[in-house]
Amino acid sequence: MNTRKLTKASYMVSGVVLLVVAVEVIARLGIAGTAWPSLVEVYEFLGDERQRSTLWRNTLVTLESSATGLVMGTIIAVLAGAVSALVPILRPGLDRFAAIVNAVPLVALAPLFITTVGREDSPAVVAAMGVGFVVFVSTTSGLANASRTHHDVLTVLGANRFRRFARLQLPQALPSIVDGLVLAAPTAVLGATIGEWFGAPSGLGMMIVSAFQSANIPQLWAVALSATAMALIAYFIFIAVQRATVRRFT
Amino acid sequence: MSAPTIPGTPAPHTATGGSRTHAGTTSGRVRSTLIWVGTNVLHLWPLALVVLVWDLWIVLNNYTALVAARPWDAFADILTHPGEYLYDTWFTMMMSVGGLLLGTVVGSLCAILVWWSAALSGIVTPAALIMRSVPISALIPIIARIFGYESDSTVFVCIVIICFFPSFVFVLSGLVSIPAAGRDLFTVLGAGKAQVLMRLGLLHSVPNLMISVRITAPIAVMAAILAEYLIGNHGLGEMFSYARSYQQWDRAWGTAVIATVLSVAIFLSARWCERKVTDRVT
Question: Is the pTM of this model over 0.80?
Fold first, then answer.
């Protein structure tokens, strides 16, 4: 077992190394032209104190928007999921809605918020929408997980709909809600950067578009790396939360 | 997931409820059909709510027509200028569906190639997972810089690359999870790796492949619109960008409505295909 884990880990490390080497080789051979920088260039770009602090500042802006969006979206989605569980007459409509709402493109919503919600707040709102869609779907499916038998037992013991929700459905839905959060965390970063694309005053999305337009290739790549790192870290944090939840609630 | 009813499938309880009193009579059948249609329409109330909230949001905030469009303005623009929307919608649809299909095919082929060697798939999988986590809002400008940002083909390349990674990851995980018993049986019966793949692996990874198509379908549309917005000469993204820079808000919001409808339609078709195919192979 241990050697298998070791092999897996060594595969992973060599996979990441291979990716880095491939990126560097493509750059050195000039296969992809001048728009593919050597990682040394990106590194040197980040070596510049001023560039680094600009990138860091904008990363924090995006982090804040994504985190705000994640929290807002999750709260709204779980509340909406609770409503659909507690008010049965609304359920078929909400179920159907959840299935299609998942497919609504964030990019169609993002620019519309810029003119209404404002430049500063719209990244967080777009992130919240992306998160909300994903978490709502996983919440409703989690709340529906509780078995008929369990419902009946609690009903016989005198629990009303709200009691059953709090004591049975919600605890049982938690793993599924956390599954949703694992997917939603990178979506929050995506939503925030898309929100920033369309004219936000700061943030990684704004930096990407401006680096694209001014053909500042090392900056473009540095920003993309930074956004990717944020999405990956968020993903792994929630994977850890997911493991803990599964241990506790199943 | 508590399978949400799909519009178009009969809801059995309403049908029997309606026909109990008027069994067999034409009026009974008409009545039960009406009830069925009625409940289905009523269950679309969240859509009506969205339109209502959209309108209220604009009215209550006193946003003028210079800032945002009310739903009626957007719908009116779509209905009075269908020709303006038709070509760009068609373009975006062909781009996203074509990119989705090509990306899925290439992703699956690469997954099969990589699966051939356990070591290779172990090495490539983490790299693919990293690539999958690159936000597409960061990926598109990079691809656009590399492939040139004047032509429509770059839009297509963006979609193909973005659809490649999910299908690669899903198909590979399907191939890796071939049950050991099945693999053993094949080996005992003298099957080579190629035969295990052809007769067991491909079939085993089809459900995963279809899940990836369903999940990737809306992403393909989003990628198409983002890429068109940034670089395109055609398509809904470009149409939106144009309307926005001339502050034609009814047109801009109308484009957003059409983009949403297109994305939902492509998603529902992908989900329909997934159900059909998965029923067939499992």
Answer: yes
